[in-house]
């Protein structure tokens, strides 16, 4: 299985970044140009839950909707999901992402590192690495700074 990672430094505590990502109402207002809405179609955000993200105009040429089934949750720290619908699911199997929020040592109450890690297998040799997905995810995570504390 192949992997790809990326991270951004956020000027908010890890706990706040976690809460923002897990709350559909908040995550839909962080950067509506990238993610216009989010909802749990099944479950409450725990393992087995099904969540859908509808993309905003900045990502419409890339992906319109992403359906994700949550596999693992480390409360306050990370969530792992796999794509069950959307364009990425048509290109990779599996396509699994872990989003993690780590307090920045020495600045735990003010800053954190948001990490995106994908595990994937392209469905054919012609399928490119998911660099666009990585860049979009990191840009979206960086938008958390604009919403703040």
From TrEMBL:
From which source organism is this entry? Answer: Colocasia esculenta
SUPFAM superfamilies registered for this protein in UniProt = Bet v1-like
A biological process term (GO) from this entry: abscisic acid-activated signaling pathway
Gene Ontology MF terms in the entry:
abscisic acid binding; protein phosphatase inhibitor activity; signaling receptor activity
Can you give the residue ranges of the Bet v I/Major latex protein domain? 3-147
Any one GO cellular component localisation term in the record: cytoplasm
| Family listed | Belongs to the BetVI family.
Q: What is this protein called?
A: Bet v I/Major latex protein domain-containing protein
* Source species, domain of life: Eukaryota
Cite the Gene3D superfamilies for this sequence. Answer: 3.30.530.20
